[in-house]
Design a protein that fits this description.
three-stranded parallel sheet, 8 strands, alpha/beta, 234 residues
Length: 234
């Protein structure tokens, strides 16, 4: 039903694959964000992907997901790995996806351990100002996560955890912060060649209150017409 409504409304879906793996090494997982270092994901031990059975199961379920969803017009991109969680052999996996469905773009390692392949360079940027830089390999540059601004609406959250990247006290503060973010970083980057930008995030989730809509879907933190003015590039 969810994909049907995306088809009906014209909403583009970048479809993530569920991640797996063992206990992650914090240094490995945080390396791209903190240091800018991108490691080879062929080292299964380093990426907590030593379990052969787990890797085989991942690929089996990946095939099943593509077979289930490939005929949904809303699917615009396949994302096999997000932020290094369970990442392994992304180059081979991306080739496998392309063979199964050559009609769609692939974000082979969303925002994290880029293996320098494919059509897109995917970035997740928090804690610092984003400045556009063309990809040296000529790939489309996508800011696939940014923002994450916190505003908690009392009585509409899942729990008490307050995770986010910038804490705000009111909808007025949220609006001002987003206006500043888009006018000073995102819109200039778009004019310089940025191909896509995905704000974190549409709705609050269990342990995060950085959505534009509350967890219970009862409060829209900023009216749609205001968000349109903030994000639209003239």
């Amino acid at each position: 039903r969810w994909y049907y409504h995306c088809d009906r409304l014209g909403m583009l879906v970048w479809q993530d694959m569920i991640n797996g793996g063992g206990s992650y090494n914090p240094a490995v997982i945080s390396a791209p964000l903190v240091t800018g270092v991108h490691l080879s994901d062929k080292n299964h031990k380093l990426f907590a992907r030593e379990d052969l059975e787990g890797r085989i199961e991942y690929e089996t379920e990946l095939n099943e997901m593509i077979e289930l969803l490939y005929n949904c017009p809303c699917i615009a991109m396949w994302v096999p790995f997000n932020e290094g969680w369970g990442q392994f052999d992304a180059t081979r996996i991306a080739e496998k996806i392309a063979n199964a469905d050559p009609t769609r773009t692939i974000d082979h390692a969303s925002g994290w351990h880029d293996q320098k392949i494919g059509e897109t360079k995917s970035l997740h940027v928090y804690f610092k100002k984003y400045v556009f830089k063309p990809d040296k390999l000529g790939r489309a540059v996508m800011l696939t996560e940014f923002g994450g601004y916190n505003y908690r609406c009392a009585g509409h959250s899942f729990g008490s955890v307050d995770f986010g990247y910038k804490k705000l006290k009111s909808t007025v503060d949220l609006q001002k912060a987003l206006e500043k973010l888009y006018s000073e970083q995102i819109k200039p980057a778009y004019k310089q060649g940025l191909s896509a930008a995905v704000y974190t995030q549409l709705s609050d989730v269990e342990e995060e209150v950085n959505g534009l809509v509350t967890y219970d879907r009862k409060v829209v933190k900023l009216p749609p017409e205001i968000m349109r003015k903030i994000v639209n590039v003239e």
